[in-house]
Amino acid sequence: MSKIKVSIVIVSYNTKELLLSCIASIKKFADVSYEIIISDNGSTDGTLEALTKIKEVVLVENKVNLGFAKGNNAAKKISKGEYILFLNPDTLLHKNALSESVSYLNKNKKTGALTCKVVLLDGSLDKDTRRSFPTPFIALTHFSGLDRIFPKSPLFSRYWYGYADENITQEIDALQGAFLLSPKKVLDSIGWFDEDYFLDGEDIDLCWKIKNLHLKVIYFPKVSITHIKKGSKKKNKSLKSVTGGVTAMQLFYEKRLSAQYPFYVNGLVLFGIQILKFIRTIKYYLS
C-alpha cells in the first residue's frame, strides 16, 4: 500500500453543490497520492447522503456546527498524509497545484506553510491570499481605506502586500485558510488550529505560531486555485458569520499583539474593533 502524501481536509456546512464541485476538481487534478477527509458540521442539505456515494471520501460527522478550527482539528487523529492541505469547499483545484506545492515544501524545509495563487471567478487575485499581521498601524491603514487609496505604497498597502508583485514567490506573514498546505509534523508540534476561534482568524493565528518556530510562510504563485469567494458564507449567512471576522480580530490582537503595546494603544485598538463590529451588525439587520 502506497504512503499517502497529502491529507486534504475540508470543513463543510450546508454547501453540498460547492463541495461536490471541489471534490470533482480534486479527483481530476490531484497528482500526488492523497486522501480526502470531509469534516461535516451537521449539514442538513443532503451533503451527507451525497458523500456516501463517493468512495474516496473519509467522512467525519460532527453533530453540530463546530466552526472552522474545531472542524479541521477533527481530522487530526485520522489524517495519514505527510502533508495536510486545508481546503475550502468553495474552491476548485487547478492542474499541478498540489504536486508543485508539495515539491516546493520538499525542497524548502524551512517553510512551515504555503499557499498558492488563489484567484477569484474573474481571474483576479483574492487579496486575502497574502496578509500582514494586523498591528495597530497596519490595521489602521487597512480599515481607514488608505491601502485602497495608495494600493502600491510600501507604507500604506502592507496589509494585502499590494506593493509586492503577485506573480513572484515571496515570504509573507499570513495566508488564507482557503488553501493552506503544511507538513503534518509542523502542525502536530503546534497543536493545529487554536479552537478559541470559531470562524475567521484561525489561519492568521496558525501562521503566527508557525513563524514562532522560525519557519517561513510562503506565497507560491507558480500554481493556482479558484476561490468562489464567500461561497460557503453566503449559503449560511448569519449575524455570527457577518461579525465573525471582527470577533476573530479582537481575539488575535488580545492573544498575540496586545502585550507589545502600551495600554492606551490597546484601548484605542479595542475601541475601534467594537465600532467596526457595531457597524457590521447594523448593516446585517438593514440588509
Describe the fold and architecture.
The protein has a 5-stranded mixed sheet, sandwiched between helices. Strands 5, 6, 8 and 11 form a 4-stranded mixed sheet that branches. It has a two-stranded antiparallel sheet with strand order 7-9. It has 11 helices and 11 strands. Strand 1, helix 1 and strand 2 (34-41) form a beta-alpha-beta unit. The protein has helices spanning 16-29, 47-51, 67-73, 97-107, 136-143, 146-149, 184-190, 202-211, 231-235, 239-257, 263-286, and strands spanning 6-12, 34-41, 57-62, 83-87, 91-93, 111-119, 130-131, 170-172, 174-175, 179-183, 216-227. Helix 10 runs antiparallel to helix 11. It is an alpha/beta fold. The model has no long low-confidence stretch (mean pLDDT 94).
